[in-house]
Every structure is written in structure tokens, then in C-alpha cells.
Amino acid sequence: MQVDRYKSFETERLIIRPTSLEDGEFIYELLNSPKWIQFIGDRNIRSVEDAENYISSKMHTQLKKLGFSNNTVIRKSDLKKIGTCGLYDREGLDDVDIGFAFLPEFEKKGYAYEAANELKNAAREEFGLKEISAITLEENKGSRNLLEKLGFEFQEKIMIPNDPNELMFYHLKF
């Protein structure tokens, strides 16, 4: 799938572009990082090939359908892939939700806020969404703090299909 025909974004320090099959090695590393496993869950990605299949079946399917999905976040200064940030049509949620994850060495540097804020604005301005949501585990304090900094408000604790965890549901109306 040719992802370069879909919308990419730039901030002062970041390039945010749709995840492509060429990101397989990076996605493999990210989805097997300790915090991904702890806070998002094991996606059974055991090889770069598994990661490429995940990109194709999960990310590209939504990208083709809605024009947005998961994005790879790249640091401009050295073109290093540092994380992901995306807008997701998730089963069990009424609104599109925003999600983000970064490799451990790129946390606490403002990259997640920079990327998520850009996508939050794109949700409204580029994709015409009137509201977006977000979900996180209660123990994921970093994610909760970032959502609140972005202007999301906690609504309630919820359960969604295929996830055994109770999640904190946040909402933002434009």
C-alpha cells in the first residue's frame, strides 16, 4: 500500500507520517517495549514479519477506510523513528480515539505532547471530527497527565471488547 498519498504532518521537531511496511522493524521494537506490554498489551508480534502483517491488516485497513490511522513519529534532527501517534476507530468506542507510544529513551522530552497536539488539531481541522476520545489504564499516570494537558476530561471507567482491563475514558469536544 502506498501510504505517501495520505496526510502527513510536521511540527518544529517532528515528522508524523502514516506507518508503512518499511516501519516493520521499528514497530516490532516498539510493540515489544516494556511499557507497551505493560500499558497497552501484548500484540503477539514476535518478528519483523509479524509487525509488517500487523501494519498491513490493522493500520492500513483503517487508513484506506478513513484516511487516518497510526502514524510513525520521526525526529527531524536525525530522522530517528521514536514513537507512534494516531487516530483510531476502536471497537467499543463511539468516537475516534487518539493514542500514542514512544520508545523509552524518547519519553519525557515533550515529543508525545508535540505529536499528540498536532494530531488533535488535525482531527478537527483536517479530518472534520467534532470530538475525540482517549483511553488508558489508571496506573498509566504519564498517559493520563498528557491527556489532561491536551485538554481531555476524564468521563468514566469503561470496558471495551477484547480487553480484560478496566480503562479510564477521556473525552474532548471541539
Automatic annotation (TrEMBL):
InterPro entries with a match to the protein in the record: Acyl_CoA_acyltransferase, GNAT_dom, N-acetyltransferase
The name this protein goes by in its record: GNAT family N-acetyltransferase
PROSITE patterns according to UniProt: GNAT (PS51186)
Pfam families cross-referenced by the UniProt entry: Acetyltransf_3 (PF13302)
Organism: Christiangramia sediminicola
Chain ranges of the N-acetyltransferase domain: 14-174
